[in-house]
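User: I've been trying to design a sequence by hand for this structure and keep getting stuck. Would you show me what you'd pick, starting by listing the structure so we're on the same page?

Assistant: Good idea, let's start from the same input. This is the structure you sent:
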């Protein structure tokens, strides 16, 4: 803790990045000034949440957008958590996610779903399997995916984002 911090409760700012925190450059600069001041005065803790991988966050956002260093980074739609700038995911969180996780069975279960296209390797993570799906197909296919995963007894939590038009 910094020596000049007041003796008070710490604050936690948790924010998504793309088109939430990052988007309006002028507002972002003004907010950063306030966050720096609050970090110094009140011990503000900053947590960034993103669907991006750590590598994409570092290359596309942190480096190009002058993001303040976060205390916590939850990347890859929450499947990886990093603390204090570390490049090693939190082991306890990884162990928690590994319980009941069977990547190979999930991939095999979804292999024959029509119009469900695996994203490139760089989009895949240890506890995240990513696919492309056209919006017009999603209404019929998402319930099918849910059923197939449930039928295999697989715990599931899927995020339906960035749909192709």
């Amino acid at each position: 803790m910094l020596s000049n911090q007041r003796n008070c409760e710490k604050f936690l700012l948790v924010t998504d990045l793309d088109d939430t925190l990052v988007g309006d450059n002028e507002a972002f600069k003004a907010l950063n000034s306030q966050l720096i001041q609050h970090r110094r005065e009140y011990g503000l803790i900053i947590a960034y949440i993103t669907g991006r991988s750590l590598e994409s966050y570092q290359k596309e956002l942190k480096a190009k957008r002058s993001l303040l260093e976060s205390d916590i980074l939850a990347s890859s739609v929450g499947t990886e958590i990093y603390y204090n700038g570390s490049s090693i995911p939190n082991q306890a969180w990884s162990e928690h996610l590994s319980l009941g996780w069977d990547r190979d069975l999930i991939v095999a279960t979804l292999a024959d779903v029509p119009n469900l296209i695996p994203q490139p390797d760089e989009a895949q993570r240890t506890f995240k399997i990513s696919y492309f799906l056209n919006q017009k197909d999603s209404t019929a296919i998402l319930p099918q995916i849910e059923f197939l995963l449930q039928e295999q007894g697989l715990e599931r939590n899927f995020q339906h984002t960035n749909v192709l038009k």
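That's my pick for every position. To get oriented when you compare it with your attempt: The helical segments are 25-42, 54-65, 91-98, 103-110, 135-151. Residues 25-42 form the longest helix (18 residues).
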